[in-house]
Write a structure and sequence with these properties.
Elements (H helix, E strand, L loop, with lengths): L1 H16 L1 H30 L10 E8 L2 E4 L3 H10 L3 E9 L2 E4 L5 E4 L1 E4 L3 H5 L5 E2 L14 E4 L1 H8 L9 E4 L2 E8 L13 E4 L17 E7 L5 H18 L1 H4 L3 E6 H6 L2 H33 L1 H9 L4 H37 L14 H27 L3 H7 L6 H37 L9 E7 L8 H16 L4 E9 L8 E6 L13 E7 L3 H5 L3 E4 L13 E5 H7 L9 E4 L4 E9 L18 E5 L14 E8 L7 H11 L4 E7 H8 L1 H35 L1 H9 L4 H30 L15 H27 L3 H6 L2
Parallel strand pairs: 6-11, 8-10, 17-22, 19-21
Antiparallel strand pairs: 1-2, 1-12, 1-13, 3-6, 3-12, 4-5, 4-9, 7-10, 8-11, 9-10, 14-23, 14-24, 15-17, 15-23, 16-17, 16-20, 18-21, 19-22, 20-21
Length: 814
C-alpha cells in the first residue's frame, strides 16, 4: 500500500506538471466513458432491469391470433373460458382502454384516462391498494353496483390524497360510481398510469359478449411457480382447440399467443440498442487509442527519466506499475467527468425524443450504472496504458543516454501509426453506420403515407353520453359538431371517425364477396382494415380518389350501405376488373355494402412496416350507416380529423371554444398533428440516427486529433532531418509530400481495415435499415472520401510547419 500511495502521489504530480496534456486526455476519456455510461443506463433501464412487479418474470402478455393477424385483441367470452380451463396460470386478467367524462361541480367535463379491468387484474400484477380494496368477483358482473378504483396520482391531484375518500362517489359518463380503493401513485402499466379503473364485466354491450367480435381488449396472466412459457403455450393451445370444436363459427383457427410481458413492453428495440452499444464501444476504443498515443508521445519525452530509473535499479515491472498507475488515475478522472456527461446526455436524449424508447421513465444512473462506469474506467486505464507502459519500460540504457533527446525510435513511431490506423478504421465503421441510418431516414421521409399529413390534425372528442342515449341522439350530436367546425375560419374539411386511424389504431373486420361461396366460419373469411368515416374524411386526410366517388353526406342511415375500398383491396380481390358496383358482405356489421369508389392505400402500419403486414386491404364505411347495435360504441367518444388552411394547431383554441358552446360537458383531448403522427411512427429510427451521428462525429474528431497529434510529434522529432534535407536542396513541396504522405499512409491503412470491418458489421443493423442496403456503395464511398479528406486536413497543419523549418536553426539543434 505504501508503494501504491507513492505511485499515486507521483502520478498526480506528473499530471499537474503537464496540465495541458492531462486536460486533453481526461476530456477525451470523459467523452468515451460518458457516452458508454449514458447508453448503458438506457440498456439497463430498458432491457436489464426487471419490471416493477413482484416476480415479474412470471407475467405473460396474452393475445389472440387469427389468420393473417397476430397479437390480435382477445374476446371476453373466450377469456372467461381460458380462466376456467387453464392449468398453467395461477391467475389471468383482461383490460381495455376506456376514457371517461368526469362531471364535477358546475357540470364542467374533465376527461380522465381509465381502464376497464377484470377482477383479477391487480392481484395478477401483485399490486396492493394504498386505501380500500380491489375488485371482487361479484363486482365484475353485469348488473352489479358501479364501483371504481382511483389511480394514486389522480387521487392526490383531484382529492388532495384524502383518507376519507373510500365510499364517496364520482360521476363518470353520467353514471355514479362508488370509490372502493386507491392504487399506489407509483403504479404504471405498459409505461402509463391511469386515473380510474372500472370492472369490465359490468359493461352492458351486446357486442362485448359476442364471440365473433373483439372490442380492443387484451390479457395478462401470471404463470404458476416453475411453469415454463413453453408449457403454458401447450396448455393454451389445447384450450384453443377445445373452443374451436365447441364454437366452430367463431373460434375455428383462433389461436392464443403468449409473450413474456417484459419482452412485449420492450418490443423490437433490443436489436437497436445492441447496435448502439457496439457503436459506443467503438467510440471508447477510439478514445483509448487516442490517449495511448498521447501517453506514448509523452513517454518518449521521459525516456531519459526511465533510463536513469533503470540505471538506479528499477525493474521492468516497477516502471510498468508506475505508468499504469498514472493511466488509471487519468481514467478515474475521465470516468468522473464522463459520469457528469452521461447524466446530461441521458436527459437530453430522453427529453429530445420522448416516446422513442419503451420504459424510458425507468432509465436512471443507479448503482448498477455506477459500477459499470467504475469498471469501464478501470478497463480503459489498463487498455490505453498497457501498450505505452510496455514499450517505455523496455529501454536501451546506453542508447537513450546517448540520444540526448534527439529523436525517437522507429518502433515507437510505428506503434503510434498502429493506434492511428485503428482509430481511423473504427471511425469509418461508425461513419458508415451513421450514413446508412441517415439514408434510411431520408428514404422513409420520401415514402408516400397514402395521405397528406400537412395541415391535418386529429383529436379525440368525448360526448356526454348516458346509458339511455339513443343512436339518433348520437348522430344528431355528431352532425351538430360537424356544422360547428365548418364555421371556424381556416377549417377546410372535417370528419368524425372511428375504427382504424392511420398509424394510431387498427380495427379489422372479416368479409366475403357477393357471388362467391360464403366461408364456413369467420376465420376462413378474408379480413380488411376498416375506417368509419363521414363525408369529408378523404378530403381532411388528403386521400386520393382513383375510381368512382368518395363517401358523401347522402350516405346516411336512410340510404343503401356503401363503402370505398383502397387500391390494395381492389388488386387483391378484384384483379383485372372494375370493383365499383360490386358488393361485399361485412361480418360483424351483418350488412351488405356496394363498392362506390376506389381510393389510395394508406400506410396504416407505418411508413416502414406496411409491406410486412399480412393485412393491408382497407375499406371506408360511412359513420352514419353504423348498425344500430354498434352505435352505442360511438356514443361515448369519437376521433376527429381536421384539415386547415395554415398551421392546424392555431385553430385548436377556436375548436375548444366551439365544443364548449355545443356542450360544456364535452372535452377535446389527445390532440396530434398528422405530421407528428408520421414522425412518431419512426421515432426509434430517428433516435438511432441521432445517436449514431453523434458517436460518428465524436469518432471523426478524435481520429482527426489523433492523426494531427502523431504528425505534429513526428515533425518535432524529425526537425533535424527535415533541416538537413532542405539544406541539401529539398524543396518545400517535397517536405509537404513527405509529411502528408506519412499521415496519408496511416489513414489509408485504417480506411482499408475499416471498410472490411464495416462490410461485416453493418449486416448486424440490416433490420434497422429501410430503402438502402447494408453494403450501400454510395455510403461507403462517401464516408471513405470524407475520412480521407479530414485525415489530409489534419496532416496539412503540421506539414505547413515543417515547410517553414529554417535549415540553419534545425542543424544548430545538434
Amino acid at each position: 500500500m505504501d508503494t501504491l500511495l507513492q505511485d499515486l502521489r507521483y502520478g498526480l504530480r506528473m499530471l499537474a506538471k503537464s496540465l495541458g496534456f492531462a486536460a486533453i486526455a481526461i476530456l477525451t476519456l470523459a467523452l468515451g466513458i460518458g457516452a458508454n455510461t449514458a447508453l448503458f443506463s438506457v440498456v439497463n433501464g430498458v432491457l436489464l432491469t426487471p419490471l416493477a412487479y413482484p416476480h415479474s418474470g412470471q407475467l405473460i402478455a396474452i393475445y389472440g391470433k387469427t389468420p393473417g393477424y397476430e397479437n390480435a385483441p382477445i374476446n371476453y367470452m373466450n377469456f372467461l373460458d381460458w380462466q376456467r380451463q387453464t392449468q398453467t396460470f395461477s391467475s389471468m386478467a383482461m383490460y381495455r382502454n376506456q376514457d371517461y367524462n368526469l362531471i364535477g361541480t358546475g357540470e364542467v367535463a374533465e376527461r380522465v384516462a381509465g381502464y376497464m379491468i377484470s377482477a383479477d387484474f391487480f392481484s395478477t400484477l401483485g399490486v396492493t391498494p394504498v386505501l380500500g380494496r380491489t375488485f371482487r368477483a361479484d363486482d365484475d358482473q353485469m348488473g352489479a353496483a358501479p364501483v371504481v378504483i382511483l389511480g394514486g396520482g389522480f387521487w392526490r391531484r383531484k382529492f388532495a390524497a384524502s383518507l376519507e375518500i373510500i365510499g364517496k362517489s364520482i360521476t363518470l359518463n353520467g353514471t355514479s360510481y362508488t370509490i372502493v380503493g386507491v392504487i399506489p401513485a407509483s403504479f404504471t402499466f405498459y409505461g402509463q398510469d391511469r386515473d380510474v379503473y372500472t370492472p369490465i364485466g359490468q359493461w352492458n354491450d351486446a357486442s362485448f359478449r359476442d364471440r365473433r367480435i373483439d372490442v380492443s381488449a387484451h390479457g395478462v396472466g401470471r404463470l404458476k411457480p416453475r411453469v415454463t412459457l413453453s408449457q403454458a403455450k401447450a396448455d393454451m393451445d389445447g384450450i384453443a382447440q377445445n373452443l374451436a370444436v365447441a364454437y366452430p363459427e367463431a373460434d375455428k383457427a383462433v389461436g392464443i399467443i403468449l409473450v413474456s410481458m417484459k419482452e412485449d413492453i420492450v418490443g423490437n428495440v433490443q436489436p437497436l440498442l445492441i447496435v448502439l452499444l457496439a457503436a459506443v464501444g467503438f467510440l471508447l476504443l477510439i478514445a483509448c487509442a487516442n490517449v495511448a498515443n498521447l501517453l506514448l508521445a509523452r513517454s518518449m519525452g521521459r525516456s531519459r527519466e526511465f533510463a536513469i530509473r533503470a540505471a538506479l535499479g528499477a525493474g521492468h515491472m516497477r516502471v510498468i506499475r508506475q505508468l499504469l498507475t498514472e493511466s488509471i488515475v487519468l481514467a478515474g478522472l475521465g470516468g468522473a467527468l464522463g459520469l457528469l456527461f452521461a447524466f446530461w446526455g441521458t436527459k437530453a436524449v430522453l427529453g429530445t425524443l420522448p416516446g422513442a424508447l419503451p420504459r424510458a421513465n425507468e432509465v436512471s444512473l443507479d448503482s448498477r450504472v455506477l459500477l459499470f462506469t467504475m469498471g469501464l474506467s478501470l478497463f480503459a486505464g489498463i487498455v490505453f496504458g498497457l501498450a505505452p507502459a510496455l514499450k517505455t519500460s523496455r529501454v536501451n540504457l546506453q542508447e537513450i543516454l546517448k540520444e540526448s533527446g534527439r529523436g525517437s525510435s522507429g518502433a515507437r513511431q510505428g506503434l503510434q501509426g498502429v493506434f492511428v490506423a485503428v482509430e481511423v478504421a473504427m471511425a469509418l465503421v461508425l461513419l458508415v453506420g451513421a450514413g446508412l441510418m441517415v439514408r434510411s431516414l431520408a428514404a422513409l421521409w420520401r415514402v408516400n403515407p397514402g395521405f397528406n399529413p400537412s395541415h391535418a390534425i386529429t383529436f379525440s372528442l368525448s360526448l356526454p353520453a348516458a346509458p339511455t342515449t339513443s343512436s339518433a341522439e348520437t348522430r344528431a350530436r355528431l352532425r351538430h359538431f360537424d356544422d360547428k367546425m365548418r364555421t371556424i375560419p381556416g377549417v377546410q374539411a372535417v370528419s368524425v371517425t372511428l375504427g382504424s386511424r392511420p398509424m394510431i389504431h387498427n380495427s379489422l373486420l372479416p368479409f366475403w364477396i357477393e357471388g362467391q361461396p360464403k366461408p364456413a366460419n369467420l376465420q376462413e373469411m378474408p379480413q380488411a382494415m376498416f375506417y368509419l368515416v363521414e363525408a369529408g374524411f378523404q378530403q381532411a386526410m388528403g386521400v386520393t380518389l382513383e375510381r368512382g366517388r368518395f363517401i358523401t353526406a347522402q350516405d346516411d342511415e336512410h340510404a343503401p350501405v356503401v363503402v370505398d375500398i383502397d387500391d390494395v383491396f381492389a388488386r387483391t380481390y378484384f384483379p383485372q376488373e372494375n370493383p365499383v358496383g360490386k358488393r361485399i358482405h361485412i361480418a360483424g356489421f351483418e350488412v351488405q355494402a356496394e363498392i362506390v369508389g376506389v381510393v389510395g392505400h394508406v400506410k396504416q402500419w407505418g411508413l416502414d412496416a406496411d409491406a410486412k403486414s399480412a393485412i393491408e386491404a382497407q375499406f371506408d364505411y360511412p359513420f352514419m350507416q353504423l348498425p344500430e347495435k354498434l352505435m352505442p360504441l360511438a356514443a361515448d367518444a369519437v376521433a376527429v380529423v381536421l384539415r386547415t388552411e395554415g398551421d392546424p394547431t392555431l385553430v385548436m383554441p377556436a375548436v375548444r371554444r366551439a365544443v364548449a358552446e355545443i356542450d360544456s360537458r364535452e372535452a377535446v383531448y389527445n390532440v396530434q398533428t398528422m405530421d407528428e403522427v408520421v414522425s412518431h411512427s419512426f421515432a426509434a429510427r430517428r433516435l438511432s440516427m441521432i445517436l449514431l451521428g453523434v458517436f460518428a462525429a465524436l469518432a471523426l474528431a478524435l481520429a482527426c486529433v489523433g492523426i494531427y497529434g502523431v504528425i505534429s510529434y513526428l515533425v518535432g522529432q524529425r526537425t533535424h532531418e527535415i533541416g538537413l534535407r532542405m539544406a541539401l536542396g529539398a524543396q518545400r513541396n517535397e517536405v509537404l509530400r513527405l509529411v502528408v504522405g506519412h499521415g496519408a499512409r496511416m489513414a489509408l491503412i485504417g480506411v482499408a481495415i475499416g471498410i472490411g470491418a464495416a462490410l461485416g458489421l453493418t449486416r448486424l443493423m440490416a433490420n434497422q435499415l429501410f430503402g438502402v442496403s447494408a453494403h450501400d456503395p454510395l455510403t461507403f464511398a462517401g464516408v471513405t472520401l470524407l475520412l480521407i479528406i479530414v485525415a489530409l486536413a489534419a496532416c496539412y497543419i503540421p506539414a505547413r510547419r515543417a515547410m517553414r523549418v529554417d535549415p540553419m536553426i534545425a542543424l544548430r539543434y545538434e
